[in-house]
Design a protein that fits this description.
heterodimer, A: about 140 residues, alpha/beta, Rossmann fold, five-stranded parallel sheet, B: about 325 residues, globular
């Protein structure tokens, strides 16, 4: 039986800012790297993000945020993922996130934070290198 | 208890996490996938399966969002499989149908799954059929399947759905050509979406004219409905028609059994074909002759079709 695992990624924009250029560029780059990218549009609540990740059974979630509300929204998202048993999903973030907030986010379980200027190649490589195992 | 058993029991109990996992197994064609499908199969056959197809940009996703809401008003639970194309070059896919339906994500009576076509032809994915079975077995009353933006030959949906809705919109180009070939025969219901545009009447009339030329005796005449998915106009009438078609099928037992039989027969034949092909190719590859013939084809000493004849002749003689 040929097993053809595809990497499924959810690119989500939590919160109220309406700048999705970055999210779309990353979505497109991951698609071109052979992944299946689910994009859900702007202004997603933490609940919607967690529930979408569950229904779509994604391996990876990329959160894009530029509103500055990451310290409120990310803990909630991580908590809701855990509540649904989605502990094997890799979460990374991008957008405008101050350097000093990064350790706190990583403590919550966000694997990596990509700031402005990150190349899409770097993100692709990171996803491939840190893909969670599936049991 | 094994993981697979947990998934199977979860699906039958309607657990969304298990449904999601089961569909992933099916998409990835894992060893567990066949076990899952085998175990749930006897629980399928209760849901009403509606296919939504039509050209890209006609408004299928927006329409589906409104159809879901209407079914929810009627206290029906809904499962959705929304298919988008896979890039034949990179193998990747951008799945964006959910954007239009995202408000329904938190409704526990709705389960939405985006699916890449993974280069399966015909407007759906290879996994679509079995994913529908999972949703059916999980107890969803209605299952909506959104095909990729379809043209003239993407008609695989008829093998999956009980009722097929072909969606059109005015101003999409040479629309009537597309309807004539292929799409017309598969429609149980026609929808002209974006019906508030000024040339909508013409589109509706064009379709009606073609439909009159279609004098197949099916006992069901596909109606042409006008909707404006953005405002919700015409949606309850559409769902009413879908229900009417369901009652029509239920009331006509002979035809229903015949069509079900044809569907199952096709599925069985396809499964046999696929399994024998991959098994034979695997066998042949083990022998040296496969390599040898491959080299000869590359040197233009023999063409692929004749090489296949040669390989199979010897194989079947054994």
């Amino acid at each position: 039986m040929q097993n053809v695992r595809k990497i499924r990624v959810l690119i989500a924009k939590p919160g109220l800012d309406s700048h999705d250029r970055g999210a779309k560029v990353v979505a497109r780059a991951l698609r071109d790297a052979g992944m299946e990218v689910i994009y859900t549009g702007l202004r997603q609540t933490p609940e919607q993000i967690a529930e979408t990740a569950l229904q779509e059974d994604v391996d990876v979630i990329g959160l894009s945020i530029l509103s500055g509300a990451h310290k409120t929204l990310f803990p909630r998202i991580m908590e809701l993922l855990k509540k649904r048993g989605l502990t094997d999903v890799m979460v990374f973030a991008g957008g405008i996130i101050p350097e000093e907030d990064v350790p706190q986010l990583k403590k919550l379980g966000v694997k990596e934070v990509f700031g402005p200027g990150t190349t899409t190649e770097a993100i692709i490589k990171y996803v491939f290198d840190n893909l969670p195992e599936r049991t | 208890m094994t993981k697979t058993l947990e998934i199977i029991q979860g699906v039958l109990a309607g657990n969304p996490r298990s449904i999601a996992r089961a569909i992933t197994h099916i998409e990835n064609n894992t060893a567990d996938a066949s076990r899952i499908v085998a175990s749930i199969y006897s629980h399928t056959g209760k849901a009403n399966i509606v296919g939504i197809t039509g050209a890209g940009g006609a408004g299928k996703s927006t329409l589906i969002e409104k159809i879901i809401r209407e079914y929810r008003r009627r206290n029906k639970t809904v499962g959705v499989v929304a298919v988008d194309p896979t890039s034949p070059f990179t193998g990747g896919a951008f799945l964006g149908d959910r954007i239009r339906m995202q408000e329904l994500t938190m409704d526990q009576g709705v389960f939405i799954r985006s699916m890449a076509s993974r280069n399966y032809l015909g407007g759906i994915a290879k996994a679509t059929k079995d994913a529908v079975k999972v949703l059916d077995a999980s107890g969803k009353d209605i299952i909506l399947v959104e095909t990729v933006g379809a043209g003239q030959s993407e008609v695989e949906i008829i093998k999956v759905a009980h009722t097929v809705v072909v969606v059109h919109a005015p101003g999409l180009g040479d629309e009537i050509q597309a309807i004539k070939a292929g799409m017309m025969e598969i429609a149980d219901v026609f929808v002209v979406n974006k019906g508030d545009r000024e040339n909508a009447n013409k589109t509706i009339m064009d379709i009606q004219t073609i439909m009159q030329m279609d004098n197949k005796e099916k006992g069901w005449k596909a109606p042409v409905l006008r909707t404006v998915a953005l405002t919700g106009e015409g949606i309850s009438e559409l769902v009413e028609k879908l229900e009417e078609h369901r009652r029509f099928l239920e009331g006509n037992d002979e035809q229903r059994m015949a069509s079900l039989r044809a569907k199952v027969e096709m599925e069985l034949a396809e499964a046999i074909k696929e399994k024998t092909t991959s098994r034979i190719v695997e066998e042949l590859k083990k022998e040296g002759e496969f390599e040898e013939l491959l080299r000869r084809i590359l040197r233009k000493e023999i063409d692929p079709s004749s090489a296949a004849d040669k390989l199979l002749q010897e194989k079947l003689r054994k």
